[in-house]
């Protein structure tokens, strides 16, 4: 090789390939870090895409039609029904909550279970098929019912048994294996039972003011587009207060939940990949440190800086391609295993498939992160002369050159840009990435500060302590990398503990000590006194709160129509469909008046409404503004008379909208009640109420809390699994920092052993070094981890912040011991190094 003669890419690859003949032994850390990050991102992205794609692909089946028109507490008039029927074939269903009861008691079975009762016509289902555990589905007779497996198990019912709804008995004809429109029906509080429309009418559940929902699913005639059908119905019946869905948005709530959860978990995965990038940098630095003799030799023989860059860039690229490729394979396969483990927890069973977009995005992240973090150590190998390469173990080298800095900045900008472009909520994504960047910069600054302070401290008399302090600032020290590794790992431990304990506390806080035992729905409005007497007869100590109950949709606020908005305001969940409304002549329990005045008891003027303060802030309206609500197909424009602080955690009746009594008292409605009583009286009260009010539904608070706890536990598990990858990445960074300083520590170990130091003294110095760093970082990790956990709980989940600090501190202590143990395990090989062999290699 002549001086100044640059090697081409082919010759550089030939040298790089020969150097890799022994395998990727020196680049294992790079392989592990990239694999963890890419596999996590690809798995989360593929699983999210598979669920949302399945929901979109099965839109007609999940919805039960091309278009759905839904209305509450009423059925379509003949004119409305004719207009809906003109669009195509219509399936008419009706749905309500109702108590299912066995007609003959059985040991071990409860007397009644809250269920979702659905009445269907002969054309149901328009799309898909209703699958039974045995036999084929045929239109049901007035006496027949088919029930979900959960209801069968809870009431110990089998085909041929009899159950009762309201005033009618039904024969269990079959057990439902798959209800095609289950996801499209939305959230339910109990298992399902299906009867015919004629059978539904037999129950007597539909009383004036009863809470029920009617849905008209339409299989459109050829040539009619779903959006055109919806627009036509809206134009023909602008004030009907209907809710519309089409096959492209069959389950918007489910899609929205999984997209947001997927984005959040993907950002956690991206943060893990960024953390793993530091491990990549340490791994490349360690690998190039092992190759410094070869690099110096190549430079002495005339290799240019570009030659060195090409040779080792090709090796790093080969390792990156392998790690990314294996990570993508894992990301494509793991969702299948996850779906198998999740079972019925997912709303749909995603099919097997390869989803190119999340895989390509994960691969791009992996390549960019590898490029950004591998360039600095590669630049030092490229720009440092041969002499500096050979002295790198005993003296600090120069930093990276400007060109490398620009390249790293471009790669980082591409990572951020890719994250923002692919994010459903770019602002949220930017906040998460910004937080990760701030944490890394803070740790970077602290690492540099620790190194500088250690260099200026007076030398302790104790040799081990003096050696531990020297290790923090001597040439080749990996103090900054160790601070980042330990700080990230400890911060993540604190974050996870804070999130987990806050989620657990949310349930305890959401259920106050004197929460109601039961909710009772669909009490006839003229039976208030009889209801009170029935409850008091069985539980004289019971405290009752009885309120009128209706359903309404906000159609306009502050002079603008909701239908005309291009996008709903952030946080305006109450604008999505119908919500509960009530009326009262006094301020409701669980509310505090914060603005305006409450109307007099005998008020009989124009409609007034009291609005939740948070809802008013989101809609940017206040006292004196107008609000239009569609109730039972009639639009009511009311003036906002007051704003209330609604205490949602009372587990009582908390309504966003409360009207003046004169506005709604004459409308058909039912009553809803909460009962607070001794636990021992719950069974007696339930039996008495079901006997006196067959159409009423009873909801036990314990069942609601159980469902909420299950959901929160699932969310916490998903966060734990994703964040565990970040912890593994942090541990990989720690291992990489130890590997990057292996040669310098080997030199120290050999010199100390030559001077008479024992193995335990050398290990003790290492332990002191890590203990000093951990003690320095513990308080910081507590602050940063607590801040991250607070943001996730309050900003993402919108829950209250209530971590168990005892568990958090215990987790921090355990995490500190774990990371210290890993650090010491990484130092054990240094104790077995023989002086003669090590000195010959040095």
Automatic annotation (TrEMBL):
Keyword Cell membrane carried by entry: yes
The keyword Endoplasmic reticulum appears for this protein: no
Segments traversing the membrane: 264-288, 309-342, 354-375, 404-421, 427-454, 475-499, 715-739, 770-793, 805-831
Keywords, ordered alphabetically: Cell membrane, Membrane, Transmembrane, Transmembrane helix
Topology of this chain in the membrane: Multi-pass membrane protein
A Pfam family that the UniProt record links to this protein: MacB_PCD
Domain ABC3 transporter permease C-terminal, chain residue ranges per copy: 267-385, 722-830
Location in the cell: Cell membrane
PANTHER family linked: INNER MEMBRANE PROTEIN, MEMBRANE COMPONENT OF PREDICTED ABC SUPERFAMILY METABOLITE UPTAKE TRANSPORTER
Name of the protein described by the UniProt record: FtsX-like permease family protein
Species name: Sphingomonas plantiphila
Source taxonomy: Bacteria, Pseudomonadati, Pseudomonadota, Alphaproteobacteria, Sphingomonadales
């Amino acid at each position: 090789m002549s001086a100044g003669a640059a090697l081409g890419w082919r010759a550089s690859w030939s040298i790089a390939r020969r150097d890799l003949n022994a395998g990727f032994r020196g680049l294992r850390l790079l392989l592990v870090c990239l694999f963890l990050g890419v596999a996590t991102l690809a798995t989360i992205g593929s699983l999210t895409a598979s669920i949302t794609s399945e929901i979109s692909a099965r839109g007609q089946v999940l919805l039960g039609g091309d278009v759905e028109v839904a209305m509450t507490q009423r059925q379509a008039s003949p004119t409305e029904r004719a207009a809906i029927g003109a669009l195509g074939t219509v399936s008419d269903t009706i749905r309500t909550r109702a108590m299912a009861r066995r007609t003959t008691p059985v040991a071990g079975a409860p007397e009644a279970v809250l269920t979702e009762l659905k009445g269907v016509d002969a054309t149901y289902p328009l799309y898909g098929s209703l699958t039974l555990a045995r036999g084929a589905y045929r239109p049901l007779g007035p006496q027949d019912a088919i029930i979900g497996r959960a209801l069968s198990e809870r009431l110990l019912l089998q085909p041929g048994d009899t159950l009762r709804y309201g005033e009618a008995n039904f024969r269990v004809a079959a057990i439902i294996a798959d209800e095609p429109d289950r996801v499209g029906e939305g959230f339910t509080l109990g298992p399902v039972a299906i009867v015919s429309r004629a059978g539904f009418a037999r129950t007597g559940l539909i009383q004036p003011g009863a809470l029920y929902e009617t849905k008209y699913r339409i299989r459109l005639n050829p040539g009619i587009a779903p959006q055109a059908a919806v627009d036509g119905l809206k134009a023909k019946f602008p004030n009907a207060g209907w809710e519309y869905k089409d096959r492209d948005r069959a389950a918007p709530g489910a899609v929205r939940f999984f997209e947001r959860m997927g984005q959040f978990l993907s950002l956690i995965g991206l943060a893990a990949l960024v953390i793993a990038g530091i491990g990549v940098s340490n791994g490349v630095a360690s690998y190039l440190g092992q190759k410094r003799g070869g690099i110096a030799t190549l430079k002495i023989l005339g290799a240019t800086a570009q030659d060195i860059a090409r040779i080792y860039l090709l090796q790093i690229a080969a390792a990156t391609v392998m790690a990314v490729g294996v990570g993508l394979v894992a990301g494509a396969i793991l969702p299948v295993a996850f779906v198998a483990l999740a079972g019925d927890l997912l709303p749909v069973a995603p099919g097997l498939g390869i989803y190119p977009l999340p895989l390509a995005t994960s691969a791009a992240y992996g390549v960019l992160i590898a490029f950004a973090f591998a360039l600095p150590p590669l630049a030092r190998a490229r720009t440092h002369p041969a002499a500096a390469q050979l002295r790198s173990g005993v003296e600090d080298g120069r930093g990276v050159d400007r060109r490398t800095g620009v390249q790293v900045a471009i790669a980082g900008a591409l990572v951020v840009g890719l994250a923002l472009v692919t994010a459903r909520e770019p602002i949220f994504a930017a906040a998460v990435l910004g937080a990760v960047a701030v944490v890394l910069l803070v740790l970077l600054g602290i690492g540099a500060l620790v190194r500088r302070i250690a260099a200026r401290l007076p030398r302790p008399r104790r040799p081990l302590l003096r050696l531990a302090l020297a290790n923090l600032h001597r040439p080749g020290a990996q103090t900054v990398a160790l601070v980042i590794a330990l700080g990230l790992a400890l911060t993540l431990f604190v974050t996870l503990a804070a999130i987990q304990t806050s989620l657990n506390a949310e349930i305890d806080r959401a259920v106050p000590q004197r929460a109601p035992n039961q909710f009772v729905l669909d009490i006839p409005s003229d039976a208030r006194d009889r209801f009170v007497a029935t409850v008091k007869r069985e539980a004289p100590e019971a405290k009752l709160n009885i309120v009128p109950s209706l359903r309404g949709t906000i159609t306009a606020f502050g002079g603008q129509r909701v239908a005309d908005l291009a996008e709903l305001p952030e946080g305006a969940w109450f604008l999505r469909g119908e919500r509960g409304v009530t009326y009262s002549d006094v301020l409701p329990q669980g509310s505090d008046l914060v603005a305006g005045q409450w109307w007099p008891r005998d008020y009989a003027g124009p409609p007034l409404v009291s609005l939740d303060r948070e809802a008013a802030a989101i809609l940017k309206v206040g006292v004196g503004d107008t609000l239009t609500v569609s109730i039972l197909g009639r639009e009511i424009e009311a003036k906002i008379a007051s704003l209330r602080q609604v205490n949602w955690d009372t587990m009582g009746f908390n309504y966003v909208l409360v009207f003046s009594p004169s506005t709604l008292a004459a409308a058909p409605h039912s009553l809803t009640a909460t009962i607070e009583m001794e636990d021992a009286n719950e069974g007696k009260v339930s039996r008495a109420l079901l006997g006196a009010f067959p159409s009423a539904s009873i909801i036990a608070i314990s069942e609601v809390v159980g469902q909420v706890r299950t959901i929160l536990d699932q969310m916490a598990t998903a966060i734990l699994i994703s964040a565990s990858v970040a912890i593994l990445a942090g541990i990989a960074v720690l291992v990489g920092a130890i590997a990057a300083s292996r040669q310098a520590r080997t030199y120290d170990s050999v010199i100390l052993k030559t001077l008479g130091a024992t193995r335990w003294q050398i290990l003790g110095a290492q332990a002191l070094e890590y203990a000093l760093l951990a003690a320095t970082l513990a308080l910081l990790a507590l602050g940063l981890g607590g801040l991250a956990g607070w943001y996730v709980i309050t900003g993402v989940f919108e829950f209250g912040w209530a971590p168990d600090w005892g568990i958090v501190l215990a987790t921090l202590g355990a995490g500190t011991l774990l990371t210290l143990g890993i650090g010491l395990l990484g130092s054990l090989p240094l104790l077995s190094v023989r002086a003669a062999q090590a000195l010959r290699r040095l």
